[in-house]
Write a structure and sequence with these properties.
Number of helices: 11
Number of domains: 1
Oligomer: single chain
Largest sheet: none
Radius of gyration: 19 Å
Shape: globular
Structural class: mainly alpha
Distance between the termini: 35 Å
Length: about 270
């Protein structure tokens, strides 16, 4: 019974930690007027990061919280290659979505459902975009790649730990109106973030990757704040230069991501030894 109980504990705790921040953000949007949700959530995220990285009461759980938050101080080489992999992850995520909606028609109404950023001033929209991205990026990386994947890695190994975390990550996003066209993306992108967390033994590069990715999603794919995707599918246009260029971008960035992640892991192990 030990292995199943450890599995369930890691999954439940990871989900709960991730949802703390998400619920706080949604609640502040519901209850507070104007830009006050951004102000309140800035404070919440600082407190969230401090507590779940091992600060404050109870002292008996501080070390466990610190370990599950993973490493905060990274060697220079891990920082360099980890952040390089993070930026390549963003390119992989966006190029794959562009290609998806060159193959299938972009369901703009489903993607914009519930966001309504086009009805407020642009400066306010960008504030909400950035804070929504920070909330999702920080809280989900701490919960999924820290509190869930970390213990699963130690118990079952990195492949199983990353796979289980990615399955749960996918399931937890099925309620989103935009989810159906991106089901494969959700699993693969979660796996890439899991690889980055394992390679660096830190959630910091993953937080950077997740936040930047979500800034693009919230400002471009989920709203018109940064523009609008209006390309036709290749069924209408044929395979054109735009499609071919994005295929090249996706393949190149994917290969480079794995190379950078491998370099991150090698540097971390060398520094540890």
């Amino acid at each position: 019974m030990r292995a199943p109980s450890g599995l369930i504990r890691a999954i439940v705790l990871g989900v709960l930690v991730a949802e703390v921040g998400i619920v706080a953000w949604v609640g502040s949007l519901t209850l507070l007027p104007g830009v006050w949700p951004v102000v309140v959530m800035s404070v919440v995220l600082v407190l969230f990061a401090k507590y779940f990285s091992g600060s404050w009461w109870p002292a008996a759980t501080a070390e466990t919280r610190r370990n599950r938050f993973r490493a905060l101080k990274l060697p220079t080489g891990v920082w360099t290659w980890g952040l390089a992999a993070a930026m390549l992850f963003v390119i992989v995520s966006q190029s794959s979505v562009v290609l998806t909606f060159r193959l299938f028609e972009f369901p703009a109404e489903s993607f914009a459902k519930g966001y309504n950023l086009d009805t407020i001033p642009v400066w306010a929209a960008w504030l909400f975009v950035v804070m929504a991205s920070l909330s999702a990026g920080i809280c989900e990386e701490v919960g999924f790649r820290g509190y869930m994947q970390g213990p699963l890695e130690k118990r079952y190994g990195p492949v199983v730990g990353i796979a289980i975390t990615s399955i749960v990550f996918l399931i937890l996003h099925l309620n989103q109106a935009w989810a159906p066209p991106l089901l494969l993306h959700l699993f693969v992108l979660s796996a890439l973030l899991g690889i980055l967390a394992y390679a660096s033994n830190s959630i910091i590069p993953g937080i950077v990757a997740h936040v930047v990715m979500d800034v693009v999603f919230f400002s471009y794919w989920f709203s018109d704040v940064a523009g609008r995707f209006d390309m036709s599918t290749i069924a209408e246009t044929g395979i054109d230069l735009h499609f071919g260029a994005w295929v090249l971008v996706l393949v190149t960035s994917t290969v480079l991501f794995f190379w950078a992640a491998r370099k991150t892991l090698a540097v971390r192990r060398r520094e540890a030894s």
